[in-house]
Amino acid sequence: MNDRPNVYGQPGHPLRRAKQIAVSMFYSTMGYEVKPVQYVVLRILQDHAGIDQGDKWKRANP
Superkingdom of this entry's organism (predicted)? Predict the structure, then answer.
């Protein structure tokens, strides 16, 4: 008898898989020189030049 849980029935598995797919799509589009989190920060800095670190954090983490 198999006592291991079915990971496909757990809500965390599809969420993690979706994140893996999204990150893979990001890298295939943007290349590997910049990570997704770095890209977010760079976009915030581009769109809001001159903001301080506190404001940058608030905009990156709504």
Answer: Bacteria
Q: H or E segment at 16?
A: helix 12-30
Locate 53 and state its tokens: 């670190």
Is the pTM above the cut of 0.90? no
Domain ranges of the chain: 7-60
Rg (Cα) of the chain, in Å, rounded? Answer: 17
Structure tokens at 33: 């020189």
Pair 51, 59: CB distance under 8 Å? yes
Distance, in Å, from the CA atom of 34 to the CA atom of 51, rounded to the nearest integer, reads 21
For residue 2, what pLDDT band results from cuts at 50, 70 and 90? low
Chain-centre distance for alpha carbon 41 = 12
